[in-house]
Amino acid sequence: FSNVLCRQAMLQRITIPDVVPSDLLPGSKFSLVAGDFEEIYGVETDPDEPQAGQWNAILTCFFIDTAKNIVNYLRIIHRILAPGGIWINLGPLLWHWENNNTNDTSIELDLEEVKALARTIGFEIS
Q: Mapping DSSP to helix (H, G, I), strand (E, B) and coil, where does residue 120 land?
């Protein structure tokens, strides 16, 4: 029941289009990438980021809580979205780097803080 606001929200029906990538029309932009998100999509100061403004929609599923620095993740997501693009996030905030044994620093925010940060970066939340 992590991050469930109430039982009604937990049982609320939603629909997500299910598409087989091989069935997409030629020229469709679809990407599923394995690797370090910040290394693949660049850091905020990279002026040559080829993905900037290229994505109409980004779905992150059980992802943002893998960040050591959520600020970087949200800045990158915002930068690679096309104007008018949409970001959909699904999953809990179980911060993978919290209480780590490697002494790596990390930022762990609650949901309201994540929303406030997203607004500050430029996202409109609906």
A: helix
pTM of the model: 0.69
Contact indicator for 89, 117 with CB cutoff of 8 Å = no
H or E element that contains 82 = strand 81-90
Tokens of 73: 């993740």
User: DSSP secondary structure string, 37-81?
Assistant: HHHHH--TT-TT-TTTT-EEEEEEES-GGG-S-HHHHHHHHHHHE
Give CA–CA dist 10/2, Å, rounded. Answer: 10
pLDDT in tens, 85-109: 999 988 878 777 777 677 777 787 8
**Residues 117, 9, 98, 88, CA torsion sign:** negative
